[in-house]
Amino acid sequence: MSKMDALRAMREAKYEAAQKATQKTQKTGQKPPPARTRPPVAPPAARPAAEAQPEKTDAAQPDALCGHRNMSGRTCTREHGHAAKSHRYS
Asked: Quick check: pTM over 0.70?
């Protein structure tokens, strides 16, 4: 039996099992089982240590960087609050 024949047989077996399950629930009047879904993911909780620290001002750090992060994790090296629309990542 080739790989494709085995896959086809498995697919047909799954289809037949699903048909039997559907017929069985229709005869007994039961609701079909719910579809498998992933549970919702809760957003990460805020760290209490981050809330306790006072915010840093621009006057205290004149050389502060923008700090914007791109998808690959690189950070922007322009000054904080730059007017340029694009970021410089390094």
From this structure: no
